[in-house]
Structure formats: structure tokens, C-alpha cells
Amino acid sequence: MFSLESKSKLDSVISSLLVVLMALMVINVTWQVVSRYVFQDPSSFTDELARYMLIWVGMLGAAFVAGKKEHLAIDILLTSLSPKGQLKLMVLIDICVLVFALTVMLIGGSNLVYITFILGQKSAALQIPLAYVYGIIPFSGLLVIYYQAVAISQSFQSIKTAE
């Protein structure tokens, strides 16, 4: 159902997007420093743009790292279990993460985007709708849900082969 090939392609796209966002953020912050201290005329939009880019990098990066299983974890209980017990605990953890991503990130984030879109809230300096900024929350939630579904599927396959 979930192929490792499609996950690998998605990982490649997200990592490339993160590299581009980080590079743009570095350029943006560099311009902010140069305009403030060299030209003595600070740019009005760079602070806000850097803030929004940091939100996007943080949310996409969290989804990417969750998909790579490289997020911070306390594994005292996990290492004390048998290999079959470890797989079952990982399935439980993946299900909990999936439920969190579904309820908080996807549903809650979608509500946030909808409300800010309906209210027409715009950013102060850039005058872009805040719904575009907050849109990364449900998008990242979808990514986390996909990654967790792949992990659960792989774990079930491993449990079946272990039996």
C-alpha cells in the first residue's frame, strides 16, 4: 500500500524544499543586517519574512525528521523489550503520533487557516494573508500522517515476518 520508493521521492522533494527555504532565509537575514548596519536604512519586510520562513522551516523540518525517525526520543522502555515487543511499541507510538497529527495539525490547523482566511487577516509588513503562512500546519500534518502510515505498514510487515 505504501511504497518505500514513493516515501523516498517525497523525502527528496521535502529536503530540497527545506534547503531552498533555508538558503532564502539566510539571504533575507543577511539583507536585513546589511540594510540596517551598512546602509542605515533597515528594510521593513525582512523581519516578518524571516519569521514566516522560520515557521515553514520548523514545521516542514519536523515532518521530515518524523518521517526519517530521527526525532528526539527516550528509548529506555523500547530497549528493554524483546524485538517483537519493540515492534508493537513502535506501532503504538506511531499510532499516537498519527492521531496527534490528525487532530491537532490537520484538523486544528485547517480550522486556523479557515478562520484567518474568512477574517481576512493580513501580515503587517508584507500584507499577505496569514492563511498562507498558517497553511503549512495542515500540510505538515498530512506529511506526518503519511509518514506514520508508512511506518505502521512497515512495522506490521515486520511483525508478520517475525511470526
Explain this structure to me?
It is a single chain. The longest helix has 37 residues, at 83-119. Helix content is 80%, strand content 0%. Helix 2 (46-68) runs parallel beside helix 6 (136-162). The chain is mainly alpha-helical and 163 residues long. The protein has helices at 4-38, 46-68, 76-79, 83-119, 130-134, 136-162. The protein starts with a helix and ends with a helix.
Layout of helices and strands:
Layout: H1 4-38, H2 46-68, H3 76-79, H4 83-119, H5 130-134, H6 136-162
Helix pairs in contact: 1-2, 2-6, 4-6
Largest pleated sheet? none
Oligomer: single chain
Helix content: over 70%
Mean pLDDT equals: 94
Shape: elongated
The number of helical runs is 6
Low-pLDDT stretches: none
* Series of H and E elements: HHHHHH
Q: Could you give a short description of this structure?
A:
It contains six helices and no strands. It is mostly helical and 163 residues long.
What structural keywords apply?
163 residues; single chain; mainly alpha
